[in-house]
UniProtKB/TrEMBL annotation:
Keywords: Membrane, Transmembrane, Transmembrane helix, Transport. GO terms for molecular function: transmembrane transporter activity. This is Major facilitator superfamily (MFS) profile domain-containing protein. It comes from Phanerochaete carnosa (strain HHB-10118-sp). InterPro entries: MFS, MFS_dom, MFS_trans_sf, MFS_Vesicular_Transporter. SUPFAM superfamilies: MFS general substrate transporter (SSF103473). It is a multi-pass membrane protein.
Amino acid sequence: MSGEQRSKPWGLRWRSSVWYVTFGVMTDVLVYSIVIPVLPFQLERLGYQGVSGRVGWLLFGFSAGLVLSTVPIAMFSERYNMRTWPLILGQVILIGSQIMLMLAPTYWLMVLARIIQGISSSIIWIVGLALLCDTASESIVGRQLGVAMTGLSLGSLIGPLAGGLLYHRFGFHGPGILAVILAAVDLVGRLLIIERKDALKYGVDPAAEPEPDDSEQTAQQENPVPETRAEDDKSATGERAMQLPDRPQLSLIAVVRKLATSKRALTVMFGSAIYGRVQTSVSPIIHADLDRSVAYASQEPALPLHLQAVWNFDSSRVGLIYLGGVIPTLISSPLSGWITDWYGSEWTLSISFLLILPWFGLLTINGPLALFIAMFCLENFFLAATVPPLTTELAAVSRMHEGIGYAHVYGAFNLSFGIGSARTSSTLAYIYDHVRQGWAAICYVSIGVLAMCSLLSMCFVGDKPLYSRLLIRRQSRS
């Protein structure tokens, strides 16, 4: 039975569209971040001492669950070519872990809930990004990933504010119930998704390239395609629309071997780990009670301590600085994705890493507060701009290696990011406490690793890396 003869599901086009798939990424980050500001107060209410260190282990539990579950999730999703059901399972686990955390009477149960939440986050990110790349056409995958990555910024912006306000009004159950409601709404959305492989059965390809604009149509009219060739192309397109090509199934060792021998893939994974490390260093976790000024964090990250030491900031003012740094990322992430589609990830990634460097250097200056805020916002702007080209480049790596699927490469991204961010806060606190001018030391270390990322991106990222283009141009001139 052909696609035209089948009875099409209700809402087929919008349920399989890339914009519908892109919409839901924010929920996971929001659910993760909404309870962070109130974890110390819940631990105090339960009678625990050493709250700062215990919060650090709760955050580490999330990273541990994420890292340990990444490989089996990526392999399962690609082996069975499944996206929707793993996403549904991930949302169910997310809801269950949130309820467990909300009702946990003891610390060990809270740690277990955070580990489970890390597992659910791993499912949602790996399979969700793979589904997005399945659905988006190659020409717009960068901008779609850029829009999806604004979920990081929105979740970080909305989560702490909503969590603090709800805790003040309703206690620990307040932010927990909101997180469960948001995850349940997203679960309904996941149930409605139609994957591309299923949409193709009805003659609808959500990953089809968009219609050419007027200039392209004019060019086609001036250089018409022979009629027989056009008919052949339409026939071939129709056949491809009915089924996806069979992909070879690789073992875990084969997948690791292919990715490990790809300089392009290794560069992106290194950049992802550095992004996770640097993002942790500039994204403090602020916990502010409305009745008293208290600043807790995972082993006290350096930025709140620096602001307190130089400008005598309390937790509420530090939170405002942090929120000011998040807002520019709402613009830079989709803008970076759009530029990546037009000019290639090699340009966007290399330049973004390079443009972060001066702002980190200027952050070491103990000058006017307005200067520090401006530098902090610019640094966050360009840091967020690295994520769309990183994830777009991983999609390109998947397409160039037979047997490597989107879930494989985004599993590698998830693993690299998790390793980069795990326990980074503790390391930063140690440097800040034990090194003279610790804040400057942290900034200089970040400059070094980011400069390395920019250099590697110029040498290995893209179909035609910038360094290779430069060599070819020099050879042609000589």
